[in-house]
């Protein structure tokens, strides 16, 4: 018996060694597949169970299970699961009484990164009310647009954002919008205080009957994303989508004993859904910061025993640019979840800060397809699964794409052509009941633009990600570029048509063609615009600066402007960008006049070769 056992054990070891040699990612594949099957089964259960089991119910279960466990730490204060539950009860009761909220009413949250966001959202969710998460950097026209397209009649904001609200208050009052300020007092007519009402409200639990009609397909959130429209679009996040995003931490190996550090904005899907909602699903502790600080990052991680961090590409680059210290590997961070990191920065990050499992993601807020790099391979955004597994969960394909025409390549039958392995193509995800594309609130035109028909057969329907990817022969997924009228800078998507609209408000500018250009040593692409001037006008540096600073957040402002006699158009009258993007902003190679936005001088200044060299050497910070 002992001999047989020894032989079987030896055979098992040899078999495993053989599999590891032939299939080096066999173990990681199996672990990931088992995790996702388990999570998929849970989601299937939540779809069927009645009454519907939501993230709020998951949170309430955590409160019952671990009332005294710390849920949130922020600027020296800590809040247990029970504390946050009681605070959210008070918020729900105060808003229900003051704003007369009922199930299904949307409330816009215009708030910075602070604990208020967490318990106000939970309070609204307890009432069955969707929340619209407004980017606290937007102003004026964009703010009004974001508020109105989600159908909200109530907005909750913070004293530090009061000036931005006052700017659009006359329009809000005309629309019959109720504005609530998280303050004890306010003398502005049309703005009501909320903090005083919350403090007086009861913290007793609310009946689940208040959200009795909420189901897996109900709208849970509106999260704003830029695209080809110009103004941001409100992506509709249903409860099914919220659960799927919440499971990402679990799919990456996060456990109930972990502590997550969130410094990404909570108005984004990464910070809110993957970070905060994912922490609720795991029942873990959150360390929340107002904004990212490279100099304090590792000190915070050590101080609070952080084991899971979130990142965007810029996060890792900033950390790698900090002065080297002897204790850089002295921390407990074991998992990093995020997207957008360059291969060289990724390698340097691991070299400097230790053996951290970097879980690079590919996904879109409104999309129906995503990937996770659950392996140790550097530089990839995920690993694809072939066959039934992929077809069942989220069917997708890569199709050939004509960059010049900005459209898919089609054959004589009018169908798209699949890209070969190793070939760059446009990623599209088939729209099915299991992988739906809900679209954008109040914007059917842009929803339809993201739908691609007759892809592999007549009558089929796919979601167009707008991203060029590549699949290699080992099933790894590489992100190549974005297409169309969007570029990404400082972790934010920038819609080129919105920037162009603002530029043409300048008295001297006739037309503007906006695009993103690469800068050595930086993630993403920074904003640049080729413009033509009105007849008889010179470029007005001061007025142009005034327009972009007044109406655009810092990350969307074009840092370079190129003055051209005319703008090149395609045969269908679309502005050509490819050549402009390739030419960049080198004044030694471009004959057209070039200008640079100088925050120090508060104007646009001529872009000289000296300034160009200072930008490349990082003497001038972008």
Brief rundown of the structure:
The chain has 622 residues and is of the alpha/beta class. 35% of the residues lie in helices and 23% in strands. The protein has an eight-stranded mixed sheet with strand order 2-1-11-10-12-13-14-15.
Please describe what this structure looks like:
The structure is a single chain. The chain is an alpha/beta fold and 622 residues long. It has 4 domains: 2-46, no CATH class; 47-359, Rossmann fold; 378-480, Luciferase, Domain 3 (Luciferase, domain 3, Roll); 486-616, GMP Synthetase, Chain A, domain 3, CATH 3.30.300.30. It is 35% helix and 23% strand. It has an 8-stranded mixed sheet with strand order 2-1-11-10-12-13-14-15. Strands 7-6-5-3-4-8-9 form a 7-stranded mixed sheet, sandwiched between helices. Strand 10, helix 11 (269-282) and strand 11 (285-288) form a beta-alpha-beta unit. The longest helix is centred in the N-terminal third of the chain and has 23 residues, at 26-48. The radius of gyration is 25 Å and the shape is globular. It starts with a helix and ends in a 6-residue tail after the last helix. The relative contact order is 0.08. The mean pLDDT is 91. Belongs to the ATP-dependent AMP-binding enzyme family. One of its GO terms (biological process) is long-chain fatty acid import into cell. Keywords: Cell membrane, Fatty acid metabolism, Ligase, Lipid metabolism, Lipid transport, Membrane, Nucleotide-binding, Signal, Transmembrane, Transmembrane helix, Transport.
């Amino acid at each position: 018996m002992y001999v047989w056992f020894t032989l079987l054990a030896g055979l098992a070891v040899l078999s495993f060694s053989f599999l590891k040699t032939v299939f080096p990612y066999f173990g990681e594949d199996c672990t990931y597949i088992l995790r996702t099957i388990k999570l998929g089964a849970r989601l299937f259960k939540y779809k069927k169970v009645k009454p519907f089991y939501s993230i709020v119910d998951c949170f309430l279960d955590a409160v019952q299970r671990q009332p005294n466990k710390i849920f949130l730490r922020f600027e020296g204060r800590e809040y247990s699961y029970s504390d946050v539950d009681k605070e959210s009860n008070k918020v729900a009761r105060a808003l229900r009484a003051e704003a007369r909220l009922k199930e299904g009413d949307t409330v816009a949250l215009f708030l910075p990164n602070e604990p208020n966001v967490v318990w106000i959202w939970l309070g609204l969710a307890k009432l069955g009310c969707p929340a619209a998460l407004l980017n606290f950097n937007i102003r004026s026209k964009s703010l009004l647009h974001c508020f109105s397209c989600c159908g909200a009649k109530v907005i909750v904001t913070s004293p530090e954002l009061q000036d931005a609200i006052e700017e659009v208050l006359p329009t809000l009052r005309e629309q019959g919008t109720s504005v609530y300020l998280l303050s004890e007092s306010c003398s502005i007519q049309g703005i009501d205080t909320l903090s005083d009402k919350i403090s007086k409200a009861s913290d007793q639990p609310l009946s689940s009957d208040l959200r009795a009609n909420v189901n897996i397909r109900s709208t849970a959130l509106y999260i704003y994303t830029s695209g080809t429209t110009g103004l941001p679009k409100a992506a509709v996040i249903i409860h099914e989508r919220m659960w799927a995003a919440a499971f990402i931490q679990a799919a990456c190996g996060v456990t109930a004993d972990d502590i997550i550090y969130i410094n990404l904005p909570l108005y984004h899907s990464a910070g809110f859904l993957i970070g905060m909602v994912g922490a609720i699903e795991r029942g873990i502790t959150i360390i929340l910061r107002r904004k990212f600080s490279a100099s304090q990052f590792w000190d915070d991680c050590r101080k609070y025993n952080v084991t899971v961090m979130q990142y965007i590409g810029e996060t890792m680059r900033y950390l790698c640019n900090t002065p080297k210290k002897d204790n850089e590997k002295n921390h407990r961070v074991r998992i990093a979840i995020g997207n957008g990191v360059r291969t060289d920065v990724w390698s340097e990050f691991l070299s400097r800060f230790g053996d951290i499992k970097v879980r690079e993601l590919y996904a879109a807020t409104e999309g129906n397809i995503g990937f996770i790099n659950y392996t140790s391979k550097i530089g990839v955004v995920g690993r694809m699964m072939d066959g039934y597994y992929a077809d069942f969960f989220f069917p997708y394909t890569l199709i050939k794409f004509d960059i010049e025409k900005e459209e898919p390549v089609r054959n004589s039958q009018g169908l798209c052509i699949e890209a070969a392995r190793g070939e760059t193509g446009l990623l599209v995800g088939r729209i099915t009941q299991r992988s739906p594309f809900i679209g954008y609130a109040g914007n059917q035109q842009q929803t339809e633009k993201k739908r691609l028909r007759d892809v592999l057969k007549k009558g089929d329907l796919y979601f167009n990600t707008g991203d060029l990817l590549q699949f290699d022969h080992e099933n790894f997924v590489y992100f190549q570029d974005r297409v169309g009228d969007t570029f990404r800078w400082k972790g934010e998507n920038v819609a080129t048509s919105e920037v162009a609209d603002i530029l043409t408000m300048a008295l001297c500018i006739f037309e503007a063609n906006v695009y993103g250009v690469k800068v050595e040593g930086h993630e993403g692409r920074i904003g640049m615009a080729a413009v033509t001037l009105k007849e008889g006008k010179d470029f007005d540096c001061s007025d142009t600066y005034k327009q972009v600073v007044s109406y655009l957040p810092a990350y969307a402002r074009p840092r370079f402007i190129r003055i051209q006699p005319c703008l090149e158009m395609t045969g269908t009258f679309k502005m050509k960008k490819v050549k402009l993007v390739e030419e960049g902003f080198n004044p030694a190679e471009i004959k057209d006049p070039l200008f640079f936005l100088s925050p120090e001088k508060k104007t646009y200044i001529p872009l000289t070769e000296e300034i160009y060299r200072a930008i490349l050497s990082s003497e001038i910070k972008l």
